[in-house]
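Example 4.3 (complexes with small molecules)
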Amino acid sequence: MPHTVALGEPTVGEAELDAVRRVFESGWLSGAGPTCREFESRFAETAGTQHVLTTSNCGSALHLALSVLGAGPGDEVIVGDYTFPATGHSVMWTGATPVFADIRADIWTVDPAAVEAAITPRTVGIIAVDVFGQPADFDELRAIADRHGLWLVEDAACSAGASYKGRPAGSLADIATFSFHGRKGITAGEGGALTTDNLLWADHARKLHTYGIAPALTREGSTDLPIPSFDEAGYNFRMSDIAAGIMLAQLDRLTSLVSHRGEIAALYADRLKQIEGVTAPVALEDRVHPWQSYVITLAPGVDRGRVAHHMRSNGVQCNFGTYASHVQPVYQFDGQLPVSADLWTRHLAIPMHANLTEADVDRVVEVLSDSVTVAR
Ligand SMILES: *Cc1c(COP(=O)(O)O)cnc(C)c1O
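Answer. The structure with pyridoxal-5'-phosphate bound is encoded below.
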């Protein structure tokens, strides 16, 4: 039997190993050190923002974002429904209440009209998710946020290398948050970043991410004995410098990884036209889709479980897309979000990563085609 085609796969090698070696030689392995600072200044160019803070993951970056924006008990935060539940959880961590808003049927990002309809006197902000990396409608969302005096956060977990109307993901809201988990487009295994143009928020997030004091790097080299005091109960949300070294090497690869995945997406779009019952994902002209995942929609009546079983049995990995948040018991949310609720049951992620070849694509499409035939 031919090799299994993986759903997602990191692209890592000698460059990342060399980067780790350099961090070992520097002697600073823990977080918030010189390698983190170097990555932050380089990632600021990618994200197009003044300030970058490396974090332990995207969830912790979201937690910091909402903390510095002041979300708390009694507040409502409107969240794009179709996402990994880190987005909704982060609202709950602050004591605020997530209010989920339905999504666009074509690109699955939050529907600006649904956001507007969900605003109440308790609403303080909006978190829009770049679904599988494709940016949400930030012009419309910005206008709504400004009209109602709300802040706007971009969950850019999957969107390194993406852009919207020529502006990079990371710069599209008041604060954005990235993930460098192993399933994302660039990775250090685990990791994240917060990006913003606001110095006060960046400084506050930096303090909160290291237990509520300035990072040790700021005291390094002093001949005095500076003794910090704690006036806020912060967290340890630091990225290690080892991870930052890996991220520097990944950043060098970013452009080629995104373009390779774009080529794979174009091959899929072409080949999938032949399969009845399968719709390819939509990438809008005014944004660059970095293709963190490639998610197809099965026609109603196609048994997704059977498709998945048949594909997996034939050596092609697949999975559901991401989650409809509002149906997750943890949120006890009682609204109806029909678009998200429906698509969540019909989406199927098929292999997408930068190590795929055209032969892999042919094999995936062939197995998918057979699988849909048995499952109709
Ligand atoms: C992966 C993901 C997260 C969580 O990222 P971590 O780095 O694992 O915390 C949050 N939001 C979205 C949209 C994601 O895809």
